[in-house]
Amino acid sequence: MPTVSMTVNGKQMSGDVESRTLLAQFIRETLDLTGTHIGCDTSQCGACVVHVNGDSVKSCTMLALEADGADVTTIEGLAQDGDDLHPMQEAFRDNHGLQCGFCTPGMVMSAIDLVKTNPNPSEHEIREWLEGNICRCTGYHNIVKSIAAGAAAMRGEKAAAE
Q1: In the β-sheet with 55-58, what is the strand arrangement from edge to edge?
Q2: In whole angstroms, what is the distance from residue 153 CA to residue 47 CA?
Q3: What are phi and psi of 107, to 5 degrees?
C-alpha cells in the first residue's frame, strides 16, 4: 500500500492507505480526528469540509493520495493553543449557530474560507457561499448570523446587534 504524508493541524502525519481511501476516511480512521464528519460521501452536504493548502475542500470527494504533501487543517486545528476557540467557532457558540452540531465543523470551515476571500460578506453572499453545506436542523438563520459575527470578529470588530 502507498504511504501518504501531510501536515495536519501543524503536525507531520503519515499513514499507509489504499489508493481508493478518501481524505475524510484518512482523517477520521487513521488520524482519529473525528471532528470532520461524513454525511453523504457524494459532496452534497458539506459536513466533511477541511482546508487543504488554505482552501476549503469537501474531503469525502478527495483521495488521501491527492493530499500527499499538503497542509491540511481540520476543525480540531482551529484553536491553535487548544484552549481558545477560533473567532468563527466562538461566533457559532455565541449566536446559537448549531443545533445537533453535525453540520457545524463543515459550516465553520467553509465560513472561514469565505471570510478569507470576502472579509465583510453580506447576508446574501453568506447564504450563496453555503449552498454546498446542508443543515438538517434548518438552523440557517442563526448560522448566517454566526458567520456575520465571526467575520466581524476576524476583522477585529464587534458584530452589530440585531
Answers
A1: 11-16, 3-8, 71-73, 49-52, 55-58
A2: 23
A3: -60, -45
With a cut of 70, say whether residue 160 has pLDDT above it.
Answer: no
pLDDT digits (tens, 9 = 90+) for 78-123: 987 767 899 999 999 999 999 999 999 999 999 999 999 999 999 9
- Spell out the domains of the chain, with CATH numbers in brackets: 3-77 (3.10.20.30), 87-154 (1.10.150.120)
Residues 6+ apart with CB under 8 A from 128: none
Place of cell 487543504: 52
Q: What does the block give as the cell for 4? A: 501518504
Taking CA atoms, 94 is separated from 6, 43, 111, 114, 145, in Å, by: 33, 28, 15, 19, 10
Residues 27 and 36: their CA atoms lie apart, in Å, by: 7
The CA distance from 59 to 151, in Å, is 24
Task: With a cut of 90, say whether residue 145 has pLDDT above it.
Answer: yes
Confidence band for 42, pLDDT divided at 50, 70 and 90: confident
